[in-house]
């Protein structure tokens, strides 16, 4: 059975993991018989957003506790990742990827990456294990790996320019497709950077999951 880690960043599109993208990833992995484990940073999230009105709330929430809402409690701290037990890794989008896993939402191309995530992704890459990045999460790839890897966030010119500034290669991509950097085993898809419905997001995410599992040696 192929072992895949899904890394989450909270619960909710504006301050955590995008819930639809996370569940669609989990569904595809389940249908294809993968053994899935879940991880997230064990720390407070950057801030909390009221998803009804978009306003910031004056409260503190914990990334792993929030992520556990999506995984029905089945989640571990990023510090517990054992690379040797994993075949692949996938990171759904949502602003949590750009606020909690890194600070791209505020610093753009000058962003810093969560140190535990940085270590995990670099080691996975060194071992030649495939990784998938969904929605906004591909912005982290050039910053983490420091090589000109092909990724997509869809077609947003401002974000694409930031990726290029960090040394990445941005490839425009429709919502129902994926961009594959075969050399580096990195697969990306736009999902809700472009999706206008759950079914649109599902097509690209399912393609990404299938490609990731196909690339496992």
From TrEMBL:
This is Glyoxalase. It comes from Xenorhabdus hominickii. NCBIfam families: PRK11780.1 (NF008747). GO terms for molecular function: lyase activity; transferase activity. It holds the Pfam family DJ-1_PfpI. Displays glyoxalase activity, catalyzing the conversion of glyoxal to glycolate. Residues 15-141 form the DJ-1/PfpI domain. The keyword Lyase applies. It catalyses: glyoxal + H2O = glycolate + H(+). InterPro entries: Class_I_gatase-like, DJ-1/PfpI, ElbB. Keywords: Lyase, Transferase. Belongs to the peptidase C56 family.
């Amino acid at each position: 059975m192929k072992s895949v880690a899904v890394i989450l960043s909270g619960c909710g599109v504006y301050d955590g993991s995008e819930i639809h993208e996370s569940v669609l990833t989990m569904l595809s992995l389940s249908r294809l018989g993968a053994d899935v484990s879940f991880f997230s940073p064990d720390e407070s999230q950057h801030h909390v957003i009221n998803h009804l009105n978009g306003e910031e709330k004056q409260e503190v929430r914990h990334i792993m506790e929030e992520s556990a809402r999506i995984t029905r409690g089945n989640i571990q701290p990023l510090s517990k990742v054992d690379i040797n037990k994993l075949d692949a890794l996938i990171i759904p989008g949502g602003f949590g990827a750009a606020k909690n896993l890194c600070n791209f939402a505020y610093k753009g191309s000058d962003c810093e990456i969560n140190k535990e995530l940085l270590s995990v992704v670099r080691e996975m890459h060194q071992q030649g294990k495939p990784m998938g990045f969904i929605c906004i999460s591909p912005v982290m790839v050039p910053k983490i790996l420091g090589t000109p890897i092909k990724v997509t966030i869809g077609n947003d010119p401002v974000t694409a320019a930031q990726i290029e500034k960090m040394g990445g290669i941005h490839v425009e991509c429709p919502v129902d497709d994926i961009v594959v950097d075969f050399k580096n085993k990195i697969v990306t898809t736009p999902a809700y950077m472009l999706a206008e419905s759950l079914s649109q997001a599902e097509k690209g995410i399912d393609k990404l999951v299938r490609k990731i599992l196909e690339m496992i040696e």
